[in-house]
Amino acid sequence: MSKGLNRFAILVANATFFLIIAGALVTSNDAGLATSDWPLSNGQFLPPMVGNMFYEHGHRMIATTVGLLTIGLAIYIRFSDKRFWVWRLGFFALFAVIVQGILGGLTVKMMLPLGVSAAHATLAQLFFCTTVSLAVFTSRSWIEAGPLREEQASTPLRHMCTIALVMILVQLVLGASLRHSAKWDQHLPVQLIVAHIVGAFAVTVALGGTAWSVLRRHPGVTFLTRPATIALVLLVVQLFLGVASYLTRLGSPGDPQPLHPMIGITVAHVACGALLFATTIVLTLRTYRVLPASEAPMELAARPQES
């Protein structure tokens, strides 16, 4: 195991999280068409960073940086990790970031069509999932983790975590579609609002039940209980941010421009959603690492320790 590889993977995951925030700032400031050309901005590689150009071109520069980091990570994995499946995941990340860049260009060239914009936001979350997974797979705690015994005749935590993770991804897609469905001076579609609220309820039940089950079944095993606890805290914060973002967005059609309260709360909601997604990814992968695939009990081995 290479400690340097793990640190670099964590760097790429953090850079991707920062890129998601930058994308949310572009949407919330209605800066997606600050320039009509791509990949240059107004025919320049470094245009004056004023007004909405700061958000739009800044987002492009961050995306370029993430792309270069992903190339470096794929090469680093190829020469530092002997696990073939990790190599494949690293090159999948490289493929995903290339497609993501193309989708980003299409959103500009096609004047922000909802389908392409939603696909761009969805792939961003899938790419983030991949970088977080690589950070987990290259960590010392993952390498050294030993098996635990799952309770007999209970719903396997593997299944519960997977369901919660899929629900969060669907909810993120709904949120992205909702944000891109109308500008700040337009009202949001009622159907998407209802779908997003229903999705929030489903995620709360699924993730809340999963995290509580982890804490009840494996107390003291920080390898599992730590991400479960963080997920519960982030879930509560995300629900409050969701209500606040809806209330501030509700009055924005009467504003002369996107105002800071609406922008700040909406971006915080997107950022917290990404963190909740990342934490649930960590929890899900760790359950697959240390818990049995079937409901048959296993002998309790050495409990994994945090790195």
Outline the fold blueprint.
Blueprint: H1 3-28, H2 52-80, H3 84-109, H4 114-137, H5 140-144, H6 157-180, H7 190-217, H8 222-250, H9 260-290
Helix pairs in contact: 1-2, 1-4, 1-9, 2-3, 3-4, 4-6, 4-9, 6-7, 6-9, 7-8, 8-9
How would you portray this structure in words?
The chain is mainly α. It folds into two domains: 1-138; 147-307, Four Helix Bundle (Hemerythrin (Met), subunit A). It has nine helices and no strands.
Tag the structure with descriptive keywords:
mainly alpha, 9 helices, 2 domains, 307 residues, Four Helix Bundle (Hemerythrin (Met), subunit A)
Structural class: mainly alpha
How is the biggest beta sheet arranged?
Answer: none
Summed up, the domain count is 2
Rg on CA atoms, Å: 20 Å
Concise overview:
This protein has 307 residues and is an all-alpha fold. 72% of the residues lie in helices and 0% in strands.
